Fold this protein.
Amino acid sequence: MTLKTLGAKEAPFEFRGKTGEWFGIWITNILLTIVTLGIYSAWAKVRTKKYFYQNTYVADRNFDYHATGMQILIGRLIFVAGVVVYSLLAAIPIVNLVLIIGLLAVLPILLVRSIRFNAVMSSWSNIRFGFDGTAGKAFLVFFLYPFLTAFTLYLAIPFADRARRRFVTNNHRLGKSAFAFDSGIGPFYLALGAAIAWVLVISVIFFAILGSTMTALMVNPYILEDDPLAATTLLVGFYAYIFVAFMPAGIVYQSFIRNTLFNNSSLDGKHKFHSDVQPLTLVWIAISNVVVVVFTLGLMLPWAHIRISRYNAAHTRLIPGGSLDEFVGEMEAQSGALGDAYTDIEAVDIGLPI
């Protein structure tokens, strides 16, 4: 099904941030974080999210982020305290076994709280997001399923990845309107195959360039001691291979999955999404960003952030299934100020990456 056959007017995403504006916020965040020995990093995280959320628009309505630096800091302190206590008690063998079992029970709860925090602290058109996933299901998709893929020689990784993304998306909502994602397994294997193909192609190219040196090394392991230039070439080539082969492979995989996720998701059962990011374009943006940032000693990092955000937004669209004004009006009527205030009070970010 093409966009034209959907018969709906597209609402493109836009990112309106500017490099100069973001540079000022970014450099201030860094300086204050250094001066406060890292304490300000909680507020820096909030300022960063607010800037990128508030400058992302769809249908002329922007997103927003509502957490406070204190919430982030409290969550981090709780998490650090937990790690310290665990490290001290883990020195006792019997207690360590109990702690490991307890950790397996607690981690899914923390993951769900982290996802829920990020959801309820985010909004679009002043309507909060929400997340209703459970810790039990989180244990399955984040821990058990990835573990079981080992018994398939990791050939079932796409199934585990699809289950995780289905869990996260299908338990999100905007106001009381639920998101839904479902896809066949084919696109996930296609994404994995494309990433593996990238690694294989780069491996062949690097072996063609450095093959003679590697062959000589296998014949005589001590040749590098007598030829410093060959040793330097091999070392630089190895790191270049890791950078060019595996980082882009991850980007290729994620770009395929991003398109699959958006193109098979809906909101309230009728509003669709579309993404058409190009894997090789994203690889070029990522590699050129790294090169520019390195040669400018990091000063062009804000430019790199803005560049990738603009590209992703420009290749993402909302395809409304009806009047957005009516839809937003219904959600605003459903969402009460009391509920938003309550989530502000109860939510604490425990700082786990998801």
